[in-house]
Amino acid sequence: MLSIDQLTKTYTAGDTALREVTFRVPQGQVVGLIGPSGAGKSTLIRCINRLVEPSSGAIRLGETDLVSLGSRELRQARRRIGMIFQEYALVERLTVMENVLSGRLGYVPFWRSFTRRFPGRDIENAYRLLDRVGLLEHADKRADALSGGQRQRVGIARALAQEPELLLVDEPTASLDPKTSRQIMRLITEICAERQLPAIVNIHDVPLAQQFVDRLIGLRAGRMVVDDAPERLDEAMLTEIYGAEDWTTTDQDDDDPDPDGEAQGTLRLVGTAT
């Protein structure tokens, strides 16, 4: 379980990005983090893995207080946190398999990482992960030969290679078309359910979040203003998060069928609880 209590981040210039944020994420739950640009979503994710140092508050992963850790203990704790990036963060000249195995760098001696000679167990697990994300036949391709959706799948497999206890996902669909976005969100949520992994997904696409996540947390100006089930999200909540707007507009998905045979041409009312 991830526990966040009274988390606050104030930058040296005096800007406060997070204000006393408190919530918990139990095992297997996928939380969608929504809000306007500048609301503090990325700062929150980066405070959890200490890429940004919190000003005050507590962050606990299981029994570990992440905020109090020194540099050595923090390096060890970060092995327990898988990160999936918007821009994939792959090494383009390396193969798909090598990129997945890079998720094991925190567990192997330097000489193994330098020579890219990983234990047989890690290699077998990487093949299993590539099979799970649908890229087994691409294992020997260079990362720069893949499509955007395929690169994101490599990023998911790499994060899982860490054998994490928590997934942090930063805008996983921002660079993808609607159909691929649905496939990636479906894959993330299915894997979290299979492995009972808690996850926080920073996402701008509210209808997509409503469709796939278990819970929505809305931030505005660094404060939590909504914490509820996706199906309960209504016009009043959206106004609380984003400000006044006409939330009765509609959203049309791509008309192509998805891989599971589900038609995507469904007209949905954005901001209305279903």
Kindly state the percentage of residues in helix.
Answer: 25-40%
Our Rg estimate from Cα atoms comes to 19 Å
* Morphology: globular
Quote the average pLDDT: 86
GO molecular function: ATP binding
InterPro entries: AAA+_ATPase (IPR003593), ABC_transporter-like_ATP-bd (IPR003439), ABC_transporter-like_CS (IPR017871), ABC_transpr_PhnC (IPR012693), MetN_ABC_transporter-like (IPR050086), P-loop_NTPase (IPR027417)
Membrane topology: Peripheral membrane protein
Keywords: ATP-binding, Cell membrane, Membrane, Nucleotide-binding, Translocase, Transport
Question: Could you walk me through the main structural features you see in this protein, from its secondary elements to its overall organization?
Answer:
Residues 244-274 are annotated as: Disordered. Residues 2-246 form the ABC transporter domain. It is a peripheral membrane protein. This protein is of the alpha/beta class and 274 residues long. 32% of the residues lie in helices and 23% in strands. It has nine helices and twelve strands. It has helices at residues 41-48, 71-78, 96-101, 110-115, 120-132, 148-161, 178-195, 206-212, 235-242, and strands at 2-10, 16-25, 30-34, 56-61, 64-65, 81-84, 166-170, 199-202, 215-220, 223-228, 250-252, 267-269. Strands 6-7-8-3-9-10 form a six-stranded mixed sheet, with helices on both faces. A hairpin with a 2-residue loop joins strand 4 and strand 5. Helix 5 (120-132) packs across helix 6 (148-161) and helix 6 (148-161) packs parallel to helix 7 (178-195). The longest helix is centred in the last third of the chain and has 18 residues, at 178-195. The model is unreliable at 252-274 (pLDDT under 50).
